[in-house]
Specification:
Layout (H helix, E strand, L loop, with lengths): L13 E4 L7 E5 L9 E6 L14 H9 L3 E5 L13 H19 L6 E7 L1 H10 L18 E5 L5 H6 L6 H6 L7 H7 L11 E6 L8 H13 L3 E6 L15 H10 L2
Parallel strand pairs: 3-4, 3-5, 5-6, 6-7, 7-8
Antiparallel strand pairs: 1-2, 2-4
Protein name: Alpha/beta hydrolase
GO molecular function: hydrolase activity
InterPro entries: AB_hydrolase_fold (IPR029058), BD-FAE-like_dom (IPR049492), GDXG_lipolytic_enzyme (IPR050300)
Length: 265
């Protein structure tokens, strides 16, 4: 399924800036062939928060979602290995982008009724974290009262603590936060969705049972924590699915993704 990473796709309709850094941009795709369905999908890419991976590999999925009637916003953000990426820049960027999104939408004539955050892998972590910002301490620059209508995490790194303890992708969580959970626990307390429950937002977790990059146990553990906190959460396990099949609109994950976007919120 990793073929989707190199599959060509049409360019976005627009690219807008939400900051002065070259990576503080967002690609916009408008619904194709027919009326918009009223949902803005914010698609946050993965890549274990590293600069080696950018938003371009989500092109086939973003284009397919636009063809299905959704409006797409695909943000880029500073990542580990790029200037200012990691802690706290990656979190700064996502927060600023979401604050700027209404202005960007208005400038491009985007009118929607609901906003759904969809994130893959590390992007799943960022989508869940973005929905949890209302749970941050009052003095945090990232705190906001805004919440999305729903979150869909695709093989998400939903627990930074487990990402660190399991040493996923050779210590990716420690790279992001500048240390492991035992080294900088105060950072994990602010950045880990699992530490910020309940989110108070409908969450769907889609995860393949053959995922070698982010084991399905990650979503199982997070779903259990979220349910015990009282959150509305649904886990859909896809037998035989690998890590990248979840962002491939030609895979069997596609109808499950559409259902999750439409059902949440």
């Amino acid at each position: 399924m990793s073929e989707v990473l190199n599959r060509p796709s049409p360019p976005p309709d627009h690219t807008a800036h939400y900051g002065s850094h070259r990576e503080q941009v967002v690609d916009l795709r408008m619904p194709k062939e027919g009326p918009a369905n009223g949902t803005l999908v914010v698609l946050i890419h993965g890549g274990f928060w590293r600069a080696a991976y950018d938003r371009t590999h989500t092109g086939p999925l973003a284009d397919a979602l636009a063809a299905a009637g959704y409006t797409l916003a695909v943000p880029e953000y500073r990542r580990v290995g790029s200037f200012g990426g990691g802690w706290p820049g990656t979190f700064d960027d996502l927060s600023v982008f979401l604050e700027m999104l209404p202005l960007i939408s208005t400038a491009h004539g985007i009118r929607t009724k609901r906003t759904v955050l969809v994130g893959h892998s590390a992007g799943g972590h960022l989508a869940l974290w973005a929905a949890a910002r209302h749970r941050l301490p009052a003095g945090s620059n990232w705190r906001t009262d805004w919440r999305p209508d729903a979150v869909v995490a695709l093989a998400g790194c939903s627990s930074l603590a487990l990402t660190d303890v399991w040493e996923l992708s050779r210590g990716a969580a420690a790279e992001l936060l500048g240390g492991g959970v035992n080294d900088v626990p105060e950072r994990y307390a602010l950045a880990d969705p699992g530490a910020l429950l309940p989110l108070g937002v409908p969450v769907t977790l889609l995860h393949g049972t053959m995922d070698d990059d982010v084991p399905v146990d990650m979503s199982r553990e997070f779903a259990g924590l979220a349910q015990r906190s009282g959150d509305p959460v649904r886990l859909v396990e896809l037998p035989g699915m690998d890590h990248f099949g979840l962002i491939d609109p030609l895979s069997t994950a596609w109808p499950h993704l559409l259902e999750a976007i439409d059902d949440g919120g």
